[in-house]
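Pipeline run #58 for the internal structure catalog. This entry was flagged by the ingest filter as a single-chain record with no existing model, so it goes straight to prediction. Upstream metadata was stripped on purpose; only the residue string is passed forward. Reviewer on rotation: M.T. Logging verbosity set to normal.
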Amino acid sequence: MDPLAAAMRTAASGLEAQSTRLRIVSENMANAQSTGTTPGADPYQRKTVSFMSELDRVTGAALVSIDSIGRDNSEFHVEFDPGNSAADEDGMVKLPNVNVLVEMADMREANRSYQANLQTIKQARELISMTIDLLRTTG
């Protein structure tokens, strides 16, 4: 397979991986304040994304894919809020282990990676189009 097709395949795998990463970051941010539903219950647990590299045997291109979507095992934040329905007998509420600043940074990085992969596909398409135009004029 030609190098342009391999580049497009690699970039497409990157788009898919970063799209999943953005979805997970969005879930984390949406649930940053989600407490448990019963007193003392665990709140939302932050999700994490792990990538892996693999070789496409057909194109010979190095691809990226999702290895796993896991859970962040760091401790939950605890806050005194006796009026909360999730408060334990001491008035303490467990809050998610989601740091919105970390999620924003992760979102920005995923967005930039997504844009870079998209730009790679656009440039490969442009090169293919230019090659076809050259073949038309010389043929």
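catalog note: Residues 3-138 form one domain.
catalog note: The chain has a mean pLDDT of 93.
status: ready for reviewer M.T.
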